[in-house]
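Example record for the data management plan.
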Amino acid sequence: MTSTAVRPVTDHRPTATDPPKRRHDAERLFNRVALGVLIAFALLWLVPLVWALATSIRPAQEVVTDPTGWFTAHPTFAAYGEIFDAGKLPYWYANSFITSMLTTLLTVVLASLAAFALSQTRFRARRAAFLLLLAGIMVPGQVLMIPQFLALQSAGLLNTYWGVILPQVPNVVAVFVFKQFFDGIPRELIDAARADGASWLRTYAQIVMPVSRPAVSAVTIFVFVGVWNNFLWPLLVVTDPEMMTLPVGLTSVQDVFGVPYAQLMASAVLGAIPLLAVFALFQRRIVEGIAGTGLK
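Corresponding structural encoding:
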């Protein structure tokens, strides 16, 4: 008598644990693809910077012979020394820091005050005022340069720090960023402060601004970088070499040297170093500020 083994029946129906597993695998694949894309873009961004740095430390003869070369057996910092000797680099750095910091400070204070009024107070035509403010984004800055130049000339502010700073303080984007962040603050917090007798200015200074550090950090960094890199406006209002900002001053050095690539690349590296330091120190603040203001 033979016994027949009964093969167990296997149920191939999907279990409750299969969809989460597939979802997890899909998320891992997406994260890897996203990481690969970010690395590719980072390399594309770094290649010109690395090439500029490599070119700036190559001897002038090597650069003339092979402008696209990357490596040298005889690195030298002669190009940086020539820039320091030919220009007024300490003045330009100081001017750029002063104008960038003062412009950033005034922009943060005035833009946050305007955004606080549009976000937390109630007045007639508030929505119309905000739409009119946003319409200013569509006006090219170059259109306003001649009237601004004539106004500063009549006020005697050419070749001064205020001539560089004041036209760059109004910033519609900064107002928008602050308003988006202020809109997310619970209204009950504002009402409680007002019920306790706090004025609008005290509510702004002691309640709203302390909780708005991500927005303040983001606006501070973006405005500072924009003012530091601004070339056209300082070029128009500053003619004194000792009052020039770094981008304008380095351009005058380039005019002296003509086409030598080593000096040009050294100028680019010197201009980029402060901005790289800012991004390296405050990159987390930039991400927090963008996420907190809702700008995706």
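Summary line stored alongside the record: The longest helix spans residues 18-56.
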